[in-house]
Amino acid sequence: MSKITVIGAGSVGAAIANDLTIQGIASEIVLIDINTQKARGEALDIYQGAHFGTPTIVRAGDYEDAADSDVVIITSGLPRKPGQTRLELAQSNVNIIKQIAPQVVPHAPKALYIIVSNPVDVLTYVFHKISGLPENQIIGSGTILDTSRLQAQLAKQFRVSPKNVHAHVFGEHGDSSFVPWSLANISNNHVDYYATHSPDMDCIDWTCDQAARDKAEEYVRTSGAQVIKDKGATFFAVAMSVCHICKCIFSGAGTALTVSTMMHGEYGIDDVCLSVLTIVDRNGVRGKILSKLTEEEEAKLRNSADKLKSVLQQITLD
Questions:
Q1: pTM for the complete prediction?
Q2: Would the CA dihedral through 221, 222, 228, 234 be positive or negative?
Q3: Of the residues 51, 166, 168, 173, which is catalytic?
Q4: Is 173 one of the catalytic residues?
Q5: Is 82's pLDDT higher than 90?
Q6: How far apart are CA 29 and CA 26, in angstroms?
Q7: Contact 123, 93 (CB under 8 A)
Q8: Pairing of strands 189-190, 185-186
């Protein structure tokens, strides 16, 4: 039996609650939103389809209804507009997080908290500072979706299942993110080696040079903005990525995910939240995997940290 509370019943929060129900990840789901009517409507709509999946209680509630939650997912915040960067959202959504934390944490002090609202790295850091919770209980969704976008794109180019692609996006969930290509492999072979030794090598769209890598990274950085331009918002893939985090938590086994967590000197980075490979299990954040990066990759990670710190210096926490 597991209970998940989703704070924010907008497109992302509702999609997460719906996917949690379809996949049978939780036995009880509570939707909380400042717009109580919207939360009731979304909960009722989802619950009325529960007959066709795993039995799940889906209901709207208030903060006290988060009591005994195993996981609390925070999606509340203003959405990113076309042409707007995630970091431009910072102060407005920081203010929203500052309102939510003191209302929910006293009711669910033992829950694991997944921060999804953008800019996620900034808000994860803020939640650390104001919640008073142990660090292992706080997980930002970070670059898990960026990593999924990268793996989906490479899978298409290399004509394999995304599950055979082991490549990740590190750093900020935003413009300063990057791919540590030294760690990227397809079916246990480095991407460049696989491209010239696979049975499909004559059909693979990969040139084994920096141009191919830059093109892949550009796709990752811009595809979210393209979705927003085309349909107004991103929520389906976000929801699936958050549900994957929940499944990894409940599985009990440690899973390596590119989620946003507090840095304590790793790669020379301290006092900022960003994404590197991190082991997540039933107790939340178990620890980080200190991958062997090249000097250039470490410099890119520190650059991403500096970009985030510059935003943190401009926001107001009091």
A1: 0.95
A2: negative
A3: 173
A4: yes
A5: no
A6: 7
A7: yes
A8: antiparallel
